[in-house]
Amino acid sequence: MLDAGLCNYVVISYGHNAFSSDSMMKMLMDFGGDDGVFGQFGAASGYAMAARRAMHTFHTGPETWKHIAVGERKWANLNPRAMMYKRKMTFEDYYNSRPLVEPFRLYDNCLMTDGGRAIVITTEERARDLKHRPAVIMGMGQHNTATAVNYSTHLAGPTGAKKSGEMALSMAEITLDDIDACEIYDCFTYTVEINLQSYGFFGPGEGEDWLKGGTIEPGGRMPLNTSGGQLSEAYFMGLTSLSEAAMQLMGRCGDRQLGPETNTKAPEIILCSDSGGVSRCHSSFILRRG
Amino acid sequence: MEYNKPLPKLNADSKPFWSGCREHELRFQKCNKCGLIRWPPSIICPKCHSRDVQWIVASGRGKVYSFVVYHIAYQPAFKDDLPYTVAIVELEEGPHLLTNIVNCSPDDVSCDMPVKVMWDDVTEEFSLPKFEPA
Ligand SMILES: [Zn+2]
Fold it and tell me: In this complex, which of B71, B74, B83 lies closest to A41 when CB atoms are compared?
């Protein structure tokens, strides 16, 4: 639309009073059809079902997911806007959090947030005249595996991240090795693992090895969800990840800024993702510093 | 005592399945063209698009494809059941069916565990297919 000259600026926004109202829970309770007959409710149910099948298929589970929960929390502790800014989390805290829908514990689940987020997209030419140095879209891809959890025969993945990632990388003319940081949709800890695995960052069951030692934390070699993500900053659907990637590339992230401030590489290229419908649809975006 | 949990919402596609359950039979559609036994019910075959279909009765045997254990009652009616197990059972005939695993502690449920159907006659109108260790 921008390239065709149909419009000059596009705003993508999200806002919700999910924390103080019951609207998010109502929506999640209603979309399950007859699942409620058997006591199956909410978004955790489908993802927990997928995570359990994954635990049966390859090496994964809480020992892998704790690195995601704790790693993201460390980023949130650097972000004054994060809901969990002042609350630290250790591996012990993770293990001690109460089980909700097993195999998930409380700290495997994302937050519910009152708030909103918006981004503005325009042409590179217009962006040049703006106050902030822009983030540029290098590539994008979408893949919808479409099968609902209850009927899926490939519940342990790969997710749509595989094909949508290949599309986005090909459009950007880069490889995974060129990615400096990731902003991955993280409704649950496991969502991050299965999507990183589907992108090809590691093989099935190698997530724990890849994550351990602080890989995704401040100072790590692949910083991930650097605002705290949906697990520890705020839940704004795809805009939590997309806005953070753009802000990082613009250099507007304060104490959590990638680069010397956090003992990480100053980012040139960031991979972001969004997914929906319990891994039924997946989008990938690759942004670069403008 | 009145049954206060959600009940199936019937439509033209799903009615034969739930009528079968009332007779303690697991009925599924089988495509007369390609032979696919399918679930959920639909007017055309998702594999070959044929409308030619018959209903068959499944054996009621299968294995646990995946399962979750609830420690929280999102609806108050399930509070007394905690912790309870929701599973996807892969039936011998192929379909994956969302259900509960009963007569088995959640700690003893595992993926690929063999199970067989049992019937929970919850109201005059509805019997729910649940599964127990085979
Ligand atoms: Zn057919």
Answer: B74
Decide if A35 is inside a domain: no
Q: Is A15 on the interface with B (CB under 8 A)?
A: no
CATH number at residue A200: 3.40.47.10
Cα angle: B47, vertex A160, A116; to 5 degrees: 125
What is the complex's ipTM, to 2 decimals? 0.97
Nearest CA in chain A to B71: A100
Model pLDDT for residues A73-98, shown as the tens digit of each residue: 999 999 999 999 999 999 999 999 99
Closest CA to B41 of A44, A34, A155, A269: A34
Residue A190 designated active-site? no
Tell me if A151 and B5 make a contact (CB, 8 A cut-off): no
Q: Which residue has the tokens 């401030």?
A: A261
pTM for the model:
0.95
pLDDT in tens, B64-73: 999 999 999 9
Taking only the tens place, the pLDDT of each residue in A32-84 is 789 999 999 988 899 999 999 999 999 999 999 999 999 999 999 999 999 99
Domain count, chain A: 1
Is A105 in the B-facing interface, judged by CB distances under 8 Å? no
Return the structure tokens found at A166: 């290949």
